[in-house]
């Protein structure tokens, strides 16, 4: 039995989901784990799925939740009762916490460079705002991607959302996100969502919401209703930072994909503003851009910092053409492959840095300290208006 494409994700408070694929249909969905190498004090059983896509049949896909786990602790584990031993580190239970962020990864030499840079970063959770494998219906590329990212994705939780390259729709044959949903199960049920395409989770004082740019988002949609309910439940005393990810950027001064996020922005930006979202990360545009705090298309000290980071290394290349003059809300933009690091130091301050693949990982091409909205007084000022928007039926 081969244990392949191992990756992990957060699955509710103090729990982790281990996912892997086997070529043996009788292989058990068991994960044995413990805090010492080769000594597995605990075990959990999980679920399996598989899918067919035209002439392709996936292996047996296993998803097993383990826990409860201690914070900031290394666990050793193995899948299916045999095979190689892996190790993972759980995120801390309190600040500081560091996120590595890169979208539009693909499977090129640039992807490998991005992953190598991320591997040098001391991060706790990887956030990926869509476009993972660029399989585009060629299912063996999903398998290749799973093997490519396994060294990192088996050791730290990877939290992902879908992009356009996950759609893979062939008329009359397939569900749009069948491959993605089968392979990359995220904690949607744990966050009371009805779809794997949008969900939320909390880690060390940060509430993270992953939204779907390619499922309905208007005011009558399930996603809109779920988002409104999720935002209204966030306790900013417990989780002072609020971060959102989706694939198609709302603030984009690149010629590529101009205006594609406008519909989702019109529907959902009022909710994000009312809730006091600190940061939004998007992909899709194969370049890097960071905004000031913005709302309704212009600078607003109580708005959200929008960062486009779709520069992970895809095969389509970089988006080199920017709109001139630069919009007043755009602070930094550059078409280079790279990744970002968000270190949330405490309840009031976070340090954001963007690192080009062309440089050594310690070199920061863009960097900024960000102050949380909860510490700026914005949430108190907007409390009445916010409650009206978030609590209204």
UniProtKB/TrEMBL annotation:
Catalytic activity: a phosphate monoester + H2O = an alcohol + phosphate
EC number: 3.1.3.2
MF-aspect GO terms: acid phosphatase activity; metal ion binding
Protein family: Belongs to the metallophosphoesterase superfamily. Purple acid phosphatase family.
Positions of the Calcineurin-like phosphoesterase domain: 98-288
CDD domains: MPP_PAPs
Protein name (database record): Purple acid phosphatase
Keyword terms of this UniProt record: Glycoprotein, Hydrolase, Iron, Signal, Zinc
Domain Purple acid phosphatase C-terminal as annotated: residue spans: 303-360
EC top class, as a word: hydrolase
Chain ranges of the Purple acid phosphatase N-terminal domain: 5-90
Superkingdom in the source lineage: Eukaryota
Cofactor: Fe cation; Zn(2+)
